Amino acid sequence: MRWCLALFLCCFLAAVNALSSSGSRLLVVLDESTDKSLYSTLWSDLEGRGYDVSFKSPKSDKLSLFQHGERAYDHLLILPPKSKGLGPNLTPKNILDFLSKDGNIVLALSGKASTSSAISSLLLEIDIHLSNDRSAVVVDHFNYDTVSAAEKHDVLLLQRPGQLRSDVKAFFDGEGILALPRVAPQTLSSDSALVVPILQAPATAYAYNPKEEMPAAEDIEATGSQLNVVSAMQARNSARFTVLGSVEALEDKWFSASVKAPGGKTTPTVNREFAKQLTAWTFKETGVLKVGKIEHHLATDGEVAAEDLNPKIYRIKNETVFSIEISEYAYDKWVPFEVPGEDELQLEFTMLSPFHRLALEPTSRTETSTVYSTQFVTPDQHGIFSFRINYKRPFLTNIEEKHEVTVRHFAHDEYPRSWAISGGWVWIAGLWSVIGGFLAFVIVWLYSAPAADKVKKTQ
Amino acid sequence: MHLWQATLPFCLLASAALPVAAASAWGFADATVAVQPKGAGINGGFKEQFTSSKPLSKPVAFAGSDTLRVILTAQEGSSAKRPHQAFLLLKDTQSGLDVSYPFMVKENGKSRVELTQKELPVQFLSLAEPLDARVVIGSFGSSEAYDSSVFKLSVERDPNVPLPTVETARFGKQPEIHHIFKDSPSNPPIIITLAFVAAVGATLPVLAGLWLFLGANLSHLPTALKSAPLPHIIFLGSLFAFEGVFFLYYTSWNLFQLLPAAAVVGVVAFVSGSRALGEVQGRRLAGLR
């Protein structure tokens, strides 16, 4: 009875806190408590989505990301500190440790003041670069808010980003205009597959240090779409790190502001929706994949009996069916995962290197998952093979599945019989003619009378 | 700058009061684009003027060792002035990739930018379509910024010089792999097989014919059957049975079915064979063979 109650309680708690797929403890690192009210809509939105938000100052002695060697929080939101760095409890190493223990982080920057070198070195660790003097601001003389930045042009007005590539799912798209005041731009290292831009500056944008009167041409390091307003890094353990260039964009003021681009109409901003999309993605409310059942068996016409599922051993040249069930988390529930447009979910059948790499096609859907499957012939090479799914895509958590099976050779009684091979007929005929000849010889030897008389007679 | 900032509210006021005489716009004048091959003199190579309203109709060819030079005078309204932003923006319309090259701007608005192919991103070196070259001029305040295509730049490369490649790892689908199976074993044409089978089969009649020619006969069969009928029949039967057992082993039996059967047949053949061969010895001793 008590056990039942506990289970019920567990289910109830799970239902209440089920908003993020990876926990609800959110720590906001915030410089002074006076700042807090500027972002009240953000906090109430996060609490409304089931987060257990706690606030700490980076200077606080009690601030620790870990307790007894385990994460004390599931998610971290760092607002730019006014002081030089993030203090002794939030060293780049601590933050990276938090990341490698599956904690998710949103780091907001601000172009108002120069970014601390501690944050810059933290970002360097994950291949995101800030400008050399760490105090650059993005301006664009074509896409700025004429209401609030008629002179300085440092409030960028941008569309919400669409698909990054044609084979990548868009998690931040939608209608409306974003207002991003005083953006600290980031550039991304081109040789890391883990960092992705979420929102890029327009082609005509550039970054400069507002403390300098006029930028010399050689001071301009990056321009246009190489400047990132929002960028993200998803680590190999699928922990997420998002850098938002403009912390002011999260303020209540900009959640409900009306902006006007040069020559445009006055429109309300969609910062609130974008903040929701951004925090939801980083805190694993979206773009989380889960593997359900994985089945493989010999291809048959009818139903497959339970004992024939997932055999340990296959023979070479067996017709084999592989299927995998994948769900995607969307804000508060698991839904069937659809592979985006030009992308493919691929199955590899490997022994050291892949022998087959095939696209898995959706074959059936349940309420919470899609079943992807494919059929193929096992290669004519025996050995220890594995079915591998290695699905790593920007913005989606990684799927790495490896299921080992043995592929054996033909057994001695599985080859075609010799009479079925027309080339062997000559040898079979030879064998039986020898047997026939032997029997005839035995009969002749046993019963033949000597022929010598006849020979003599003829002589 | 300070003066400019101080006059700004007034300007705004004025522009609000006179919407027709709205804020002035940035632009440029006296613009030329020149492509100078390596070693050519100051006036060597291609040189053409362009205006802010009309782009050049023909693409500008830009080869491996050339220097591209764009010179213009930035203007706000009709007075030459130094803008905060003066870029030559190269854009690939296919991929959307854009790169800006800032002009060196003097106080009087005279601007100049030079670039060679080395400064272009690798992705621009192997394009089928010419690049879109735009001039972007803008500055703070209410003046409208200028951004327009001024000419097309077709990047030409010496086909003998290999393109520098960039290896960038990106997560995405990989090319499909289908295992290439070894060819299944093949048989010679059936007609050849049948010809050889016929040749092998023909050996038996040839052998029989040869024996008959040499005088083989079965004349002792009645004698043998008369003196020891059972041993002879059983001995011959067991020999045939042996071959039958082997035939069954070939078609369906396994070794454990073969061995007991072969043992039984073997004992029978041994026992009956010694009797039958005794009879044959008797005939030999009697001088019949």
UniProtKB/TrEMBL annotation, chain A:
Residues 307-448 form the OST48 middle domain. The keyword Transmembrane applies. Keywords: Endoplasmic reticulum, Membrane, Signal, Transmembrane, Transmembrane helix. Residues 1-18 form the signal peptide. It is a single-pass type I membrane protein. GO terms for cellular component: oligosaccharyltransferase complex. Residues 25-282 form the OST48 N-terminal domain. It is found in: Endoplasmic reticulum membrane; Membrane. The chain crosses the membrane at residues 425-447. Pathway: Protein modification; protein glycosylation. InterPro entries: DDOST_48_kDa_subunit, OST48_MD, OST48_N. One of its GO terms (biological process) is protein N-linked glycosylation via asparagine. Subunit of the oligosaccharyl transferase (OST) complex that catalyzes the initial transfer of a defined glycan (Glc(3)Man(9)GlcNAc(2) in eukaryotes) from the lipid carrier dolichol-pyrophosphate to an asparagine residue within an Asn-X-Ser/Thr consensus motif in nascent polypeptide chains, the first step in protein N-glycosylation. N-glycosylation occurs cotranslationally and the complex associates with the Sec61 complex at the channel-forming translocon complex that mediates protein translocation across the endoplasmic reticulum (ER). Component of the oligosaccharyltransferase (OST) complex. PANTHER family: DOLICHYL-DIPHOSPHOOLIGOSACCHARIDE--PROTEIN GLYCOSYLTRANSFERASE 48 KDA SUBUNIT (PTHR10830). Belongs to the DDOST 48 kDa subunit family. This is Dolichyl-diphosphooligosaccharide--protein glycosyltransferase subunit WBP1. It comes from Penicillium canariense. The lineage of its organism: Eukaryota, Fungi, Dikarya, Ascomycota, Pezizomycotina.
From TrEMBL, chain B:
The keyword Transmembrane helix applies. GO terms for cellular component: oligosaccharyltransferase complex. Residues 1-22 form the signal peptide. The keyword Repressor does not apply. It is a multi-pass membrane protein. InterPro entries: Ribophorin_II_C (IPR056790), Swp1 (IPR008814). The chain crosses the membrane at residues 190-213, 233-252, 258-278. Pfam families: Ribophorin_II_C. Keywords: Endoplasmic reticulum, Membrane, Signal, Transmembrane, Transmembrane helix. It comes from the Eukaryota. PANTHER family: DOLICHYL-DIPHOSPHOOLIGOSACCHARIDE--PROTEIN GLYCOSYLTRANSFERASE SUBUNIT 2, RIBOPHORIN II. This is Ribophorin II C-terminal domain-containing protein. It comes from Penicillium canariense.
